[in-house]
Amino acid sequence: MRALLLCKAPLFLLVATVTSGCNIYYESKAEDMVERQMRAMVHVEGGEFMMGNPGGWSVRSDTIPVHRVVLDDFYIQKYEITQGDFELFIAHTGYRPSDNRYGKMRENLPERFADELPAVASWRDANAFCQWLGEQTGLTIGLPSEAQWEFAARARGKMIQYATSTGQAIPDETIAAGPTHYNTQDGRPPQRSAAVKTRGIPT
């Protein structure tokens, strides 16, 4: 899951400087967004699994050696944070994205910064979003560890490459097609992140 979001039309940013009445608007929108983020959290029962590449699926050196990991229960969001929610976070808090080319990228690639797409965010941006979410809820919220992410993505660490109904990743069938040509400044895909809570969600 990515951690931050922006608006296709930067309405939030444009309106924010016009009148203090907008603060009430953002406050209300932010409260709704926080509630939505918390509803998207799902409980993952802890356990032990073999982390890395137990099925020989990858040749990447960072997937070996396979090693045993034990995790406590945790909560993780079902969805990546959208660009629209990240943009609302920016408008509400005044946060400045860590990449100083952010505004220019929004201008040049408006289709990539559409509200419904996963947020374009660095680790620092995603972490700031999570910290803010924690402040709003009074809960401990942060980015998932690599082990938590892999455990959840592999359906609690099962010996499967893809946690789909068929065990296969077929674009537009068992997984979303997703963008393929949007990269960050270092040439790698945008940072993937998810808000995780290590304490229970009050009901």
TrEMBL record:
Region (Disordered), start-end ranges:
179-203
Q: Where is the Sulfatase-modifying factor enzyme-like domain?
A: 39-182
InterPro entries reported in the protein's UniProt record: CTDL_fold (IPR016187), Sulfatase_Mod_Factor_Kinase (IPR051043), SUMF_dom (IPR005532), SUMF_sf (IPR042095)
* Signal peptide (UniProt feature, chain positions): 1-20
PROSITE patterns in the record: PROKAR_LIPOPROTEIN (PS51257)
Key words of the record: Signal
Superkingdom classification of source: Bacteria
Note the PANTHER family from the entry: FORMYLGLYCINE-GENERATING ENZYME (PTHR23150:SF19), SULFATASE MODIFYING FACTOR 1, 2 (PTHR23150)
Q: Can you say what this protein is called?
A: SUMF1/EgtB/PvdO family nonheme iron enzyme
